[in-house]
Amino acid sequence: NHPRIAYSFNALGSCYYRQKRYQESEKMYLQALNLYKELFGDKHRDVAMASNSLALVYSEQGKYEAAEPLLTKALEIQKHILGEKHPDVATGLTNLAALYEDLGNTTKAESLYQQVLEIRKQLLGEMHPDVAITMNNLAKFNYYQKRYEVAKPLYSDAVRILETKLGSNHPNTVKVKNNLEDLKSVMDSRVD
Which CATH architecture describes the domain 125-192? Predict the structure, then answer.
């Protein structure tokens, strides 16, 4: 057994995932995860990466109960290795927040989305595109909770940042602008 074999399993899992071939992806990620654990032990960054990837596959298949412990373990490893304030930790928190949102645990989801926003602001500054994407995620969360007045300024700030940093025609900017317009439409229809 060699790390390159584990990396190959992981790469295949990623290819299958992008093709939405989740069963094949699951098999590859499981093999990668088991080999990483055998090679490096349970608290290695590659174990965290494979755990996170496998959890995303499970989430796509609606296997949320299988995904949650993997995401939690991956996040624990990342925090141990990288510290509480790291971009990879923010990504792990985002994935866990999305899972909790899917499970209907809105309190945990919102708390995690807020943590991600604070981490990214501290690490990247207020005007970074990743901060804007996090604002979009938090706005979308509030939109689905029908908290439109909370969502609107988040969307507006995200659009402002993305237009400044990426331009008006960038796909991310367009996506967030569309989200804001959808929100405004819903809010306008409630007034009528």
Answer: Alpha Horseshoe (1.25)
